[in-house]
User: Which sequence fits this backbone?
Protein backbone atom coordinates (compact mmCIF):
# COMPACT_ATOMS: atom_id res chain seq x y z
CA UNK A 1 0.00 0.00 0.00
CA UNK A 2 2.89 2.27 0.65
CA UNK A 3 4.46 1.51 -2.67
CA UNK A 4 4.20 4.86 -4.42
CA UNK A 5 5.11 3.32 -7.79
CA UNK A 6 1.74 1.56 -7.96
CA UNK A 7 -0.38 4.56 -7.08
CA UNK A 8 -1.76 6.98 -9.61
CA UNK A 9 -3.03 10.47 -8.96
CA UNK A 10 -6.73 10.76 -9.81
CA UNK A 11 -7.66 14.22 -8.60
CA UNK A 12 -7.79 16.84 -5.90
CA UNK A 13 -10.17 18.01 -3.22
CA UNK A 14 -9.46 21.62 -2.32
CA UNK A 15 -11.46 24.21 -0.45
CA UNK A 16 -10.64 27.11 1.86
CA UNK A 17 -9.56 24.86 4.74
CA UNK A 18 -8.48 21.67 2.98
CA UNK A 19 -5.88 20.71 0.43
CA UNK A 20 -6.03 17.06 -0.52
CA UNK A 21 -4.51 15.03 -3.34
CA UNK A 22 -6.27 11.76 -4.11
CA UNK A 23 -4.48 8.68 -5.41
CA UNK A 24 -5.68 5.29 -6.55
CA UNK A 25 -3.81 2.14 -5.50
CA UNK A 26 -4.52 -1.54 -6.13
CA UNK A 27 -6.02 -1.87 -2.62
CA UNK A 28 -7.97 1.36 -2.31
CA UNK A 29 -8.00 5.15 -2.41
CA UNK A 30 -5.27 7.16 -0.68
CA UNK A 31 -5.88 10.72 0.46
CA UNK A 32 -2.80 12.89 1.05
CA UNK A 33 -3.85 15.90 3.09
CA UNK A 34 -1.34 18.74 2.97
CA UNK A 35 -0.91 20.34 6.36
CA UNK A 36 1.78 23.01 5.88
CA UNK A 37 5.02 21.01 5.56
CA UNK A 38 3.48 17.69 6.46
CA UNK A 39 1.54 15.19 4.39
CA UNK A 40 -1.07 13.25 6.39
CA UNK A 41 -2.17 10.09 4.63
CA UNK A 42 -5.59 8.46 5.00
CA UNK A 43 -6.83 5.38 3.20
CA UNK A 44 -10.18 4.02 2.12
CA UNK A 45 -9.77 0.34 1.33
CA UNK A 46 -12.00 -1.15 -1.36
CA UNK A 47 -12.83 -4.00 1.07
CA UNK A 48 -14.35 -1.47 3.45
CA UNK A 49 -16.41 0.67 1.05
CA UNK A 50 -20.11 0.99 1.89
CA UNK A 51 -21.22 3.70 -0.52
CA UNK A 52 -19.92 5.55 -3.59
CA UNK A 53 -21.76 8.69 -4.71
CA UNK A 54 -21.59 11.13 -7.59
CA UNK A 55 -23.23 14.55 -7.49
CA UNK A 56 -22.92 18.01 -8.97
CA UNK A 57 -22.57 21.08 -6.79
CA UNK A 58 -21.98 24.80 -7.06
CA UNK A 59 -18.69 26.15 -5.69
CA UNK A 60 -19.73 29.42 -4.13
CA UNK A 61 -16.25 30.18 -2.79
CA UNK A 62 -14.71 30.08 -6.26
CA UNK A 63 -17.52 32.20 -7.70
CA UNK A 64 -17.18 34.86 -4.97
CA UNK A 65 -13.41 34.94 -5.52
CA UNK A 66 -13.72 35.36 -9.29
CA UNK A 67 -16.41 38.03 -8.80
CA UNK A 68 -14.02 39.94 -6.53
CA UNK A 69 -11.22 39.64 -9.10
CA UNK A 70 -13.54 40.85 -11.88
CA UNK A 71 -14.70 43.81 -9.77
CA UNK A 72 -11.20 44.73 -8.61
CA UNK A 73 -9.43 44.49 -11.97
CA UNK A 74 -12.42 45.83 -13.90
CA UNK A 75 -12.59 48.83 -11.55
CA UNK A 76 -8.87 49.43 -11.86
CA UNK A 77 -9.15 49.22 -15.66
CA UNK A 78 -11.88 51.89 -15.62
CA UNK A 79 -9.78 54.11 -13.32
CA UNK A 80 -6.70 53.68 -15.53
CA UNK A 81 -8.55 54.23 -18.80
CA UNK A 82 -6.25 57.15 -19.70
CA UNK A 83 -3.25 54.81 -19.77
CA UNK A 84 -4.39 52.48 -22.53
CA UNK A 85 -1.84 49.59 -22.19
CA UNK A 86 -2.38 49.37 -18.41
CA UNK A 87 -6.16 49.55 -18.76
CA UNK A 88 -6.09 46.82 -21.42
CA UNK A 89 -3.94 44.54 -19.26
CA UNK A 90 -6.19 44.99 -16.21
CA UNK A 91 -9.26 44.52 -18.38
CA UNK A 92 -7.83 41.31 -19.84
CA UNK A 93 -7.28 39.89 -16.32
CA UNK A 94 -10.87 40.81 -15.41
CA UNK A 95 -12.17 39.24 -18.63
CA UNK A 96 -10.29 35.97 -18.04
CA UNK A 97 -11.67 35.77 -14.47
CA UNK A 98 -15.15 36.50 -15.81
CA UNK A 99 -14.89 33.71 -18.39
CA UNK A 100 -13.66 31.21 -15.76
CA UNK A 101 -16.40 32.27 -13.33
CA UNK A 102 -19.13 31.96 -15.98
CA UNK A 103 -17.94 28.52 -17.10
CA UNK A 104 -17.82 27.32 -13.47
CA UNK A 105 -21.28 28.78 -12.80
CA UNK A 106 -22.72 26.90 -15.77
CA UNK A 107 -20.79 23.64 -15.45
CA UNK A 108 -20.58 23.38 -11.63
CA UNK A 109 -18.30 20.81 -10.03
CA UNK A 110 -18.70 17.03 -10.17
CA UNK A 111 -17.88 15.35 -6.85
CA UNK A 112 -17.20 11.64 -6.42
CA UNK A 113 -17.36 10.56 -2.74
CA UNK A 114 -16.23 7.19 -1.44
CA UNK A 115 -17.53 6.27 2.02
CA UNK A 116 -15.81 3.44 3.87
CA UNK A 117 -16.51 2.00 7.30
CA UNK A 118 -13.89 4.19 8.95
CA UNK A 119 -12.89 6.86 6.45
CA UNK A 120 -14.05 8.73 3.36
CA UNK A 121 -12.55 10.33 0.28
CA UNK A 122 -13.90 13.00 -2.06
CA UNK A 123 -12.62 13.92 -5.50
CA UNK A 124 -13.67 17.12 -7.29
CA UNK A 125 -13.68 17.49 -11.06
CA UNK A 126 -13.91 21.11 -12.16
CA UNK A 127 -14.51 21.06 -15.88
CA UNK A 128 -14.45 17.32 -16.66
CA UNK A 129 -17.87 15.70 -16.33
CA UNK A 130 -16.99 12.67 -18.44
CA UNK A 131 -13.87 12.03 -16.37
CA UNK A 132 -15.92 12.20 -13.15
CA UNK A 133 -18.44 9.66 -14.46
CA UNK A 134 -15.61 7.42 -15.69
CA UNK A 135 -13.89 7.62 -12.28
CA UNK A 136 -17.17 6.85 -10.48
CA UNK A 137 -17.66 3.73 -12.63
CA UNK A 138 -14.03 2.63 -12.26
CA UNK A 139 -14.09 2.98 -8.47
CA UNK A 140 -17.40 1.08 -8.26
CA UNK A 141 -15.97 -1.71 -10.45
CA UNK A 142 -12.80 -1.92 -8.32
CA UNK A 143 -14.84 -2.00 -5.09
CA UNK A 144 -17.14 -4.71 -6.42
CA UNK A 145 -14.18 -6.82 -7.59
CA UNK A 146 -12.32 -6.41 -4.27
CA UNK A 147 -15.39 -7.34 -2.23
CA UNK A 148 -16.11 -10.36 -4.44
CA UNK A 149 -12.49 -11.47 -3.96
CA UNK A 150 -12.79 -11.03 -0.19
CA UNK A 151 -16.04 -13.01 -0.07
CA UNK A 152 -14.37 -15.85 -2.00
CA UNK A 153 -11.37 -15.72 0.33
CA UNK A 154 -13.58 -15.89 3.42
CA UNK A 155 -15.57 -18.76 1.95
CA UNK A 156 -12.37 -20.66 1.12
CA UNK A 157 -10.97 -20.19 4.62
CA UNK A 158 -14.11 -21.30 6.41
CA UNK A 159 -13.70 -24.75 8.00
CA UNK A 160 -15.75 -27.53 6.41
CA UNK A 161 -18.95 -28.33 8.23
CA UNK A 162 -18.44 -31.18 10.65
CA UNK A 163 -20.71 -34.11 10.02
CA UNK A 164 -21.94 -35.45 13.33
CA UNK A 165 -22.83 -39.13 13.27
CA UNK A 166 -26.27 -39.44 14.79
CA UNK A 167 -26.67 -42.58 16.80
CA UNK A 168 -29.83 -44.42 15.94
CA UNK A 169 -32.11 -44.75 18.90
CA UNK A 170 -34.10 -47.90 19.53
CA UNK A 171 -37.72 -47.59 18.37
CA UNK A 172 -40.19 -46.43 20.97
CA UNK A 173 -43.02 -48.81 21.84
CA UNK A 174 -45.67 -46.48 20.38
CA UNK A 175 -43.67 -46.17 17.13
CA UNK A 176 -43.52 -49.97 16.76
CA UNK A 177 -47.33 -50.20 17.03
CA UNK A 178 -47.90 -47.47 14.50
CA UNK A 179 -45.39 -49.17 12.13
CA UNK A 180 -47.22 -52.48 12.35
CA UNK A 181 -50.53 -50.68 11.82
CA UNK A 182 -49.13 -49.06 8.75
CA UNK A 183 -48.04 -52.47 7.45
CA UNK A 184 -51.53 -53.85 8.01
CA UNK B 1 -2.72 23.43 11.52
CA UNK B 2 -5.83 22.19 9.73
CA UNK B 3 -9.24 23.10 11.09
CA UNK B 4 -10.47 20.15 13.18
CA UNK B 5 -13.48 18.42 11.67
CA UNK B 6 -16.06 16.21 13.34
CA UNK B 7 -15.10 12.56 13.44
CA UNK B 8 -16.29 10.45 10.54
CA UNK B 9 -19.30 8.34 11.51
CA UNK B 10 -20.19 6.37 8.39
CA UNK B 11 -21.90 7.24 5.10
CA UNK B 12 -23.37 10.74 4.94
CA UNK B 13 -25.19 12.86 2.41
CA UNK B 14 -22.41 14.09 0.08
CA UNK B 15 -24.05 17.54 0.01
CA UNK B 16 -25.13 18.35 3.58
CA UNK B 17 -23.23 15.63 5.50
CA UNK B 18 -26.39 14.49 7.28
CA UNK B 19 -26.55 10.82 8.24
CA UNK B 20 -28.23 8.83 5.48
CA UNK B 21 -31.03 6.33 6.05
CA UNK B 22 -30.11 2.67 5.64
CA UNK B 23 -32.59 2.03 2.81
CA UNK B 24 -30.45 3.62 0.10
CA UNK B 25 -30.59 2.03 -3.32
CA UNK B 26 -28.38 1.96 -6.40
CA UNK B 27 -29.10 4.83 -8.80
CA UNK B 28 -30.50 8.32 -8.16
CA UNK B 29 -31.26 9.12 -4.50
CA UNK B 30 -32.55 12.19 -2.69
CA UNK B 31 -31.35 13.29 0.75
CA UNK B 32 -34.34 13.73 3.07
CA UNK B 33 -32.47 16.43 4.98
CA UNK B 34 -31.36 18.85 2.23
CA UNK B 35 -33.45 17.43 -0.64
CA UNK B 36 -30.30 17.33 -2.78
CA UNK B 37 -30.00 14.57 -5.36
CA UNK B 38 -27.04 12.27 -5.94
CA UNK B 39 -26.17 9.09 -7.79
CA UNK B 40 -25.31 6.25 -5.42
CA UNK B 41 -23.89 2.76 -5.55
CA UNK B 42 -24.41 0.79 -2.34
CA UNK B 43 -22.08 -2.02 -1.25
CA UNK B 44 -22.34 -4.62 1.49
CA UNK B 45 -18.75 -5.61 2.22
CA UNK B 46 -18.30 -9.10 3.67
CA UNK B 47 -17.09 -9.23 7.26
CA UNK B 48 -13.82 -10.92 8.08
CA UNK B 49 -14.07 -13.16 11.08
CA UNK B 50 -11.18 -14.64 13.02
CA UNK B 51 -11.50 -18.30 13.92
CA UNK B 52 -10.33 -18.51 17.49
CA UNK B 53 -9.26 -21.91 18.74
CA UNK B 54 -10.24 -22.41 22.37
CA UNK B 55 -7.79 -24.15 24.67
CA UNK B 56 -10.45 -26.71 25.61
CA UNK B 57 -10.98 -27.61 21.94
CA UNK B 58 -7.34 -28.12 21.04
CA UNK B 59 -6.80 -31.31 23.02
CA UNK B 60 -4.37 -32.17 25.79
CA UNK B 61 -1.17 -32.40 23.65
CA UNK B 62 0.85 -29.30 22.92
CA UNK B 63 -1.87 -26.78 23.73
CA UNK B 64 -0.38 -23.49 24.94
CA UNK B 65 -2.54 -20.59 25.99
CA UNK B 66 -2.29 -17.11 24.48
CA UNK B 67 -0.41 -14.55 26.60
CA UNK B 68 -3.32 -12.11 26.42
CA UNK B 69 -6.29 -14.48 26.40
CA UNK B 70 -5.85 -17.36 28.82
CA UNK B 71 -8.71 -19.41 27.32
CA UNK B 72 -7.51 -19.16 23.72
CA UNK B 73 -4.93 -21.50 22.25
CA UNK B 74 -1.77 -19.86 20.90
CA UNK B 75 -1.33 -20.24 17.15
CA UNK B 76 1.86 -18.25 16.60
CA UNK B 77 4.74 -16.45 18.28
CA UNK B 78 5.34 -12.71 17.82
CA UNK B 79 8.27 -12.19 15.42
CA UNK B 80 9.57 -9.30 17.50
CA UNK B 81 9.18 -10.33 21.15
CA UNK B 82 8.41 -14.03 20.89
CA UNK B 83 5.16 -13.79 22.85
CA UNK B 84 2.72 -16.61 22.16
CA UNK B 85 -0.45 -15.21 20.62
CA UNK B 86 -3.86 -16.48 19.55
CA UNK B 87 -5.49 -15.71 16.20
CA UNK B 88 -7.28 -12.72 17.76
CA UNK B 89 -4.00 -11.08 18.75
CA UNK B 90 -2.04 -12.03 15.63
CA UNK B 91 -1.42 -9.01 13.39
CA UNK B 92 0.14 -9.68 10.01
CA UNK B 93 2.30 -6.83 8.76
CA UNK B 94 4.98 -6.64 6.08
CA UNK B 95 7.69 -7.83 8.51
CA UNK B 96 5.73 -10.87 9.71
CA UNK B 97 3.40 -11.71 12.60
CA UNK B 98 3.27 -9.28 15.50
CA UNK B 99 1.50 -9.09 18.84
CA UNK B 100 -0.65 -5.94 19.45
CA UNK B 101 1.92 -4.35 21.79
CA UNK B 102 4.79 -4.69 19.29
CA UNK B 103 2.57 -3.45 16.46
CA UNK B 104 1.66 -0.38 18.53
CA UNK B 105 5.32 0.27 19.37
CA UNK B 106 6.49 -0.09 15.76
CA UNK B 107 3.75 2.15 14.41
CA UNK B 108 4.54 4.82 17.02
CA UNK B 109 8.22 4.68 16.11
CA UNK B 110 7.30 4.85 12.41
CA UNK B 111 9.29 1.68 11.76
CA UNK B 112 6.49 -0.16 9.97
CA UNK B 113 6.05 1.46 6.56
CA UNK B 114 2.42 0.43 6.11
CA UNK B 115 1.36 2.07 9.37
CA UNK B 116 3.09 5.39 8.57
CA UNK B 117 0.56 8.12 7.94
CA UNK B 118 2.61 11.30 8.36
CA UNK B 119 5.38 12.39 6.02
CA UNK B 120 7.48 15.55 5.80
CA UNK B 121 6.63 17.45 2.60
CA UNK B 122 10.16 18.18 1.39
CA UNK B 123 8.87 19.64 -1.88
CA UNK B 124 7.07 22.46 -0.07
CA UNK B 125 10.06 23.08 2.19
CA UNK B 126 12.32 23.32 -0.86
CA UNK B 127 9.91 25.80 -2.44
CA UNK B 128 9.78 28.05 0.62
CA UNK B 129 13.57 28.21 0.98
CA UNK B 130 14.01 28.74 -2.76
CA UNK B 131 11.65 31.75 -2.70
CA UNK B 132 13.39 33.09 0.42
CA UNK B 133 16.73 32.69 -1.35
CA UNK B 134 15.42 34.60 -4.37
CA UNK B 135 14.12 37.38 -2.12
CA UNK B 136 17.42 37.73 -0.27
CA UNK B 137 19.76 37.01 -3.17
CA UNK B 138 20.85 40.67 -3.19
CA UNK B 139 22.23 40.07 0.33
CA UNK B 140 24.14 37.03 -0.94
CA UNK B 141 21.83 34.80 1.12
CA UNK B 142 20.88 33.06 -2.10
CA UNK B 143 23.86 30.72 -1.70
CA UNK B 144 23.04 29.21 1.74
CA UNK B 145 19.28 29.31 1.22
CA UNK B 146 19.65 27.95 -2.32
CA UNK B 147 21.82 25.10 -1.03
CA UNK B 148 19.24 24.34 1.67
CA UNK B 149 16.49 24.37 -0.93
CA UNK B 150 18.59 22.14 -3.17
CA UNK B 151 19.01 19.65 -0.30
CA UNK B 152 15.24 19.51 0.33
CA UNK B 153 14.43 19.33 -3.39
CA UNK B 154 16.77 16.36 -3.88
CA UNK B 155 15.22 14.68 -0.81
CA UNK B 156 11.76 15.28 -2.29
CA UNK B 157 12.81 13.82 -5.64
CA UNK B 158 14.37 10.75 -4.01
CA UNK B 159 11.37 10.00 -1.76
CA UNK B 160 8.15 10.02 -3.78
CA UNK B 161 5.99 9.70 -0.64
CA UNK B 162 7.54 12.89 0.77
CA UNK B 163 6.36 15.33 -1.83
CA UNK B 164 2.97 16.70 -2.67
CA UNK B 165 3.88 17.52 -6.27
CA UNK B 166 6.73 16.39 -8.52
CA UNK B 167 6.36 19.49 -10.71
CA UNK B 168 6.69 21.78 -7.71
CA UNK B 169 9.78 19.90 -6.45
CA UNK B 170 11.45 20.29 -9.88
CA UNK B 171 10.44 23.96 -9.98
CA UNK B 172 11.96 24.48 -6.49
CA UNK B 173 15.16 22.77 -7.62
CA UNK B 174 15.46 25.07 -10.64
CA UNK B 175 14.70 28.11 -8.47
CA UNK B 176 17.38 27.05 -5.98
CA UNK B 177 19.92 26.91 -8.83
CA UNK B 178 18.79 30.39 -9.95
CA UNK B 179 19.27 31.65 -6.34
CA UNK B 180 22.80 30.30 -6.19
CA UNK B 181 23.59 31.65 -9.66
CA UNK B 182 22.25 35.11 -8.84
CA UNK B 183 24.19 35.32 -5.59
CA UNK B 184 27.38 34.18 -7.31
CA UNK B 185 26.82 36.81 -10.00
CA UNK B 186 26.44 39.43 -7.24
CA UNK B 187 29.66 38.26 -5.60
CA UNK B 188 31.55 38.28 -8.89
CA UNK B 189 30.31 41.75 -9.77
CA UNK B 190 31.38 43.02 -6.30
CA UNK B 191 34.87 41.50 -6.52
CA UNK B 192 35.13 42.46 -10.18
CA UNK B 193 34.66 46.12 -9.28
CA UNK B 194 37.35 45.97 -6.60
Assistant:
Amino acid sequence: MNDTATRTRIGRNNDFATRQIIYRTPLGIEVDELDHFEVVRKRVFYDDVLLVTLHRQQTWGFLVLTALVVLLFGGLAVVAKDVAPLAMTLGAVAAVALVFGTIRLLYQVEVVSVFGRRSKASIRFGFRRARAAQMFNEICANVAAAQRRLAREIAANEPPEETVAVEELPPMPGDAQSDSAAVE
Amino acid sequence: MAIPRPAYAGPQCPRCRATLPEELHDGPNVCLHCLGDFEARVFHPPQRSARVLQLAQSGPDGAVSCANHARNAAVAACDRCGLLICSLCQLEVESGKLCPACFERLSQEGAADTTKTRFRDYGSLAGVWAFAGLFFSALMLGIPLGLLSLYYAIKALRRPESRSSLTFAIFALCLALVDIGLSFAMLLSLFGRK
Observations:
- The radius of gyration of chain B is 28 Å.
- Helices of chain B lie at 100-109, 122-135, 142-158, 166-193.
- Strands of chain B lie at 27-30, 37-42, 76-77, 84-85, 91-93, 96-98, 118-120.
- The interface with chain A takes residues 1-3, 8, 10-12, 14-15, 20, 24, 36-46, 48-49, 51, 113-114, 116-121, 124-125, 128, 160-162, 164-165 of chain B (CB under 8 Å).
